[in-house]
């Protein structure tokens, strides 16, 4: 029977919660300039967005240690924030575990691991920004002037790895946005697929009984070639299809 939990809604809530925010973070970090002052201003914008993502999980009891405080791990103080972030959507579901089917246990584990990884990466990025003196709400005087270029590159790599790991379909879109006479299209087999290469002529089972010793031969080789075509080696476009704009009024075209 199952627990009655609407897993589709839960998953949609998590995607809606983070998809746009992570995409904005990626946009802020894909900044071509190498000027340290410009990167500093951009890093402060990114830090503000990280804080926005974590705002529901910030605790009034949070105390950020001074950069000179000894005996305190750099990010230990932020663990309660990470835990709150990682468990908010699933903590109450554990009371229904005895009602869950085996497939629901798999869904719960997938949701828990997904939210844990999102919160681990975003919390760690935010902590680095706080301890580097970039956060306007949690003011910290760093040991020395932070290496903004290195920090920025690290953030960019973290965000890219996280989004690649999540690989959400909501991020598959045409860039730039298609015009009013166009639609966003993701190449899909067999429409506009690479041409078929039938290869050399095949022998029929009559000519080579070893091919199919226990099955009656088909009526003609044409049937074999029709049923089992050999496709040409896939191009890069078909190894990893990318969305593109196509016309939805005449003249059509791919």
Strand-pairing-aware structural class: mainly alpha
Shape type: flat
SSE string = HHHHHEHHE
Average per-residue pLDDT, rounded, comes to 83
Topology, pairings included?
Elements: H1 7-29, H2 36-54, H3 79-87, H4 102-131, H5 148-166, E1 182-185, H6 221-227, H7 236-239, E2 244-247
Antiparallel strand pairs: 1-2
Report a brief summary of the structure.
This protein has 7 helices and 2 strands, in the order H-H-H-H-H-E-H-H-E. It has 254 residues and is mainly alpha-helical.
Describe this structure in words.
- By secondary structure, the chain is mostly helical.
- It is built from 7 helices and 2 strands.
- The protein has a two-stranded antiparallel ribbon.
- The two termini are 47 Å apart.
- 15% of the residues are buried.
- The model has no long low-confidence stretch (mean pLDDT 83).
Pick out its properties.
mainly alpha, 7 helices, 254 residues, two-stranded antiparallel sheet
